[in-house]
Specification:
With 308 residues, this protein is mainly α. It contains 17 helices and no strands. Helix content is 73%, strand content 0%. The protein is globular, with a radius of gyration of 30 Å. The chain has one domain.
Length: 308
């Protein structure tokens, strides 16, 4: 007697019975297993950005800006609020130097184009919007005789040379705040000039050395930074007695403040776990005695005006 299995052999029948339906197979997706702590490139970028973010420094920067605004409002309890600009320069030197040195240490070089592109994306849109809005408003609101001068000021601000423009015109900042609607762009011009020159200088002094030995590159940067800071501070002292506007607006007399921040960044980079928050404390300490700061004694423009 011969027994026949319907639908093929016994083994085929068993295979069909045990095979899951096609609809279930189609719903199954491959699962990628990744070891704990390993992130995708995009996640690494986000994680790196979040780990580099310093909320304490961002808060200190906001305090410095607020102090400057309150000073211009005329708040008598903060006569030294203008020192917020100096603190802001120290913060910029700290942050930018830390960013460049980390890239230089990890790759042996600095991508100038990427650095400049980040600065442009961060500052140019809002800066251009303010200048365009100011130009349009001045066309209708400013007196006819003042419009040519305002146009020259706006062009200087757009090219980030407003500080030299006002210095060459012997502008007394504290006495001329109402004469130009873009007078405050002098500080942004100083910042931009620092952004242009400092990465190039870092590459120049550490060229080749950072790839062979980071210690050699680090020493070159530290020596150059110390020399520049000392020279800028000496120029600031000398120029204050000789030419107040150039002492106030000049990059050469403000560079020592950024060098202080850069030096704090280098010192922190050598031992980040122990000294991570010391630079912030050092910068914040400069704001403690603001109520006792007399702008006539510290502002070169005001002091020279008072001496005449």
């Amino acid at each position: 007697m011969t027994v026949q299995w319907l639908g093929g052999s016994r083994y085929d029948r068993l295979e069909r019975c045990c095979r899951p339906p096609m609809t279930q197979c189609a719903s199954i997706r491959p699962v990628s297993v990744r070891a704990p702590g390993i992130l995708r490139p995009a996640q690494q970028a986000v994680h790196r950005h979040s780990s580099d973010y310093r909320g304490d420094i961002d808060g200190l920067r906001a305090v410095a800006v607020t102090l400057v605004v309150l000073f211009h409002v005329g708040l008598s309890v903060l006569p030294g609020g203008f020192v917020g600009v100096d603190v802001f320069y120290v913060i910029s030197g700290f942050l930018i130097t830390g960013l460049l040195v980390r890239e230089l240490r990890s790759s042996g070089t600095v991508s100038i184009t990427n650095f400049y592109a980040r600065r442009v994306r961060r500052l140019l849109p809002l800066s251009a919007l303010v200048l365009v809005t100011t130009a349009i408003a001045s066309r209708f609101l400013a007196p006819v005789l003042d419009r040519p001068g305002i146009g020259v000021d706006i062009r200087a601000a757009a090219m980030y040379v407003a500080n030299w423009h006002y210095a060459s015109a012997s502008t007394q900042y504290m006495a001329s705040t109402g004469k130009s609607p873009v007078l405050h762009y002098w500080s942004l011009s100083v910042e931009e000039q620092f952004y242009v020159l400092w990465p190039l200088l870092l590459l120049l002094v550490s060229i080749g050395a950072a790839r062979r030995s980071w210690q050699v590159g680090f020493r070159r940067i530290a020596v150059t930074l110390g020399a520049l800071g000392a020279a800028s501070f000496a120029l600031s002292v000398v120029t204050t007695t000789a030419s107040g506007p150039f002492a106030f607006f000049g990059l050469h007399t403000r560079a020592w403040e950024m060098a202080v921040g850069a030096g704090l960044s280098l010192a922190t980079g050598r031992s980040p776990t122990r000294a991570q928050h010391r630079p912030v404390a050092a910068m914040a300490s400069s704001l403690v005695d603001l109520p006792r700061v007399d702008r006539t004694a510290h502002d070169p423009c005001v002091r020279r005006t008072a001496d005449r």
